[in-house]
Amino acid sequence: MKKNIRFSLQLIGTFLFSYFYVLMLQLTLQYVPLKKNIAFLQIKQTEVSEIPFYITFFYIHVYTAIFVLLAGFFQFSDILLKKHPATHRNIGKFYVFTVLLFSAPSGLFIGLFANGGLFAKISFVALSIYWFYFTLKGFTAIKNKNILKHKAFMLRSFALTFSAVTLRFWKVILVYLFHPAPMDLYQIIAWLGWIPNLLIVEYYLYNQLKK
């Protein structure tokens, strides 16, 4: 019975992730080929023209985040872990080094110029720092063969990776229900995009410890 429930949950999770991933892929493809005034960049023209390297860091973030989102999801596969551990390790290395070298640093840089004022900027900068920290701790834990710690920190890391999806999910919900002013919306989703993700993971880890 438990096995059936677990399988059903995995199936639902895979379906939902696939759906949201396709949406994220469509958003990312808006930036192919590289342009300076497309989609979100249309409201960031001041930063594009006046902030050195803004467009470079923006595209590094956009182009790498879509791959780490997919790589991180595959790391939850029991089949991959048990039957193809080498593939699990290689995808994990790709995830870790892409987040540490590209996605998190570029996220921190563009977070400094986020819409929504200081309140939103603090959130995006904190998100990037935690993302980097959790990923690094997950990597060092497995290097030290501490599997429990590795799983805990990689779950936290992926919770923040998945904020790319949840941020946009909350944006759609809030706009549909409350029609907030654009700046208010940015301030809310800046925090709502990742704090609940992290709380859910912490609740899961807490319950795992009690077993």
Automatic annotation (TrEMBL):
Keywords: Membrane, Transmembrane, Transmembrane helix
Transmembrane segments: 12-31, 51-74, 94-112, 118-136, 157-179, 185-206
The keyword Membrane belongs to this UniProt entry's keyword annotation: yes
Pfam families per record: DUF2306
Keyword Cell inner membrane belongs to the record: no
Signal peptide: none
Name the record gives this protein: DUF2306 domain-containing protein
Organism the protein comes from: Flavobacterium lipolyticum
